[in-house]
Amino acid sequence: MIDVIVIGGGPCGLSVGAALQKQGIHYLILEKGAIVNSILSFPVNMRFYSTSDRLEIADIPFLSEEERPSRSEVLRYYRSVVMRQKLNILTFHHVTEVVRLLNHFRIVCSDHQGQERVYEARQLVFATGIYDQPRLLGVPGEQLPKVKHYYSEGHSYAGRAVLVAGGKNSAIEAAIDLYRSGAEVTLVHRGPTVYQGIKPTLLLDIRNMIEKGRILFYPEAAVTAIDETSVYVQRGDNLIKVPNEFVFSLIGYRPDVALLQQLGIELDAETQVPKFNSDTFETNVPNAFVAGVVTGGITNKVFIDDGRLHGFNIARALAASIH
């Protein structure tokens, strides 16, 4: 019997594991992909907006070449934390079922070979993040192979007609990089502007590209359908047919709440924020905790910067109850 199982091996899940380890609590982290798997899906040349010190976990300094670290530096840092601290983590263990028994939990998962693995723990921590489940446009044609919900790099799309849907940082970064890589870029956003609420480092570039017509921008517009050669954009009373070869739908992500609901954790119907104690992070289900980005539901108000600190509270609460 394990004292605590942490579901999710992202930065916040690793931070929980490190805090538990420091308290001498027997724990296991189960991660369905690689270490900090969600960061693998970030753009190859991405540079984090958070400074390196705000991404640190386990009391290990994070030194990067520039104030804001690159994706490769972040991956290397978290990988080194796992190795140096000898964190107890099993990667490629996808949790498929969580059952509450009389005095503990039964956790069923599938490993990289498709074999079922079963673990039992007295306490559970969900640190599952939100990046694995993209929000969908919900329009005909979204299932076509040309539609992507993650952006990696722009080189492959040189000379191709590409539409980006969205108006936040990920969409703007993709549009800028695609243009610089030689793509013909159309940007569609439901709001009136993309100049507000984005990283200051992106603002000058995107404004310049839009105002000089280098990126075709449709504000207050929505994608209504996609086919093999076009995207249909509704703007006011006008339906615009945009010639197209690839679509990047970058309109945000949602937490995967299936396991939380399976266990009976209450969620706000509108925000998907789970019900939990703000001091201990224990949910309405006794001995089940939440940590990291999943605590913010779809509000986009919790990031690695904040979520990495939740483990301290959880570890203190569990140490008091276990020891």
Instruction: Supply the number of helical segments.
Output: 8
Count of all domains:
2
- In what range is the share of β-strand residues? 15-25%
Assigned CATH class of the largest domain: Alpha Beta
Radius of gyration, in Å, reads 21 Å
Order of helices and strands: EHEHHEEEEEEHEHEEEEEHEHH
How many β-strands, per DSSP? 15
Briefly note the structural class of the backbone: alpha/beta
Can you name the CATH architecture of the largest domain?
A: 3-Layer(bba) Sandwich
Q: Tell me the helix content.
A: 10-25%
Overall morphology: globular
* Spans where pLDDT lies below 50 across 5 or more residues: none
State mean pLDDT (0 to 100 scale).
95
Find the CATH superfamily of the largest domain: FAD/NAD(P)-binding domain
Main sheet makeup? 7 strands, mixed
Distance between the termini: 16 Å
What is CATH's topology name of the largest domain?
FAD/NAD(P)-binding domain
